[in-house]
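Translate sequence into structure tokens.
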Amino acid sequence: MAAPNLSYFLLLTIVAGIIVGSNNMKKVDAATKTWCIANLFIPLNVLKPQLEYACRNGADCAPITPGGSCFLPNSTLNHASYAFNSFYKRKGSCDFARLSLLSVTDPSMSLLLFYE
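Result follows.
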């Protein structure tokens, strides 16, 4: 039963990301909290290389490795969102070949509602 709610939440997160703006190359604005997330509508085989790129080039991906604190749920979409956001926080860029979006909704806090 949580899957439809999760899909609805992710869709709302994407819409919020689109509202933030299309210029994902901006540095992190200290006044507005934003998160860089993977686009839900991108095929996983297209998303995976960008996940690997983020991890190789500055994102802290240790938490999404097996046994890591954010490994579960074990999905390419969730891991990509984590890696993209880590890269965004460290490097200030959320441009992953147009496979990412900026969101004004904290996806980690909102997802907790579906798992508690």
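Note: Residues 2-115 form one domain.
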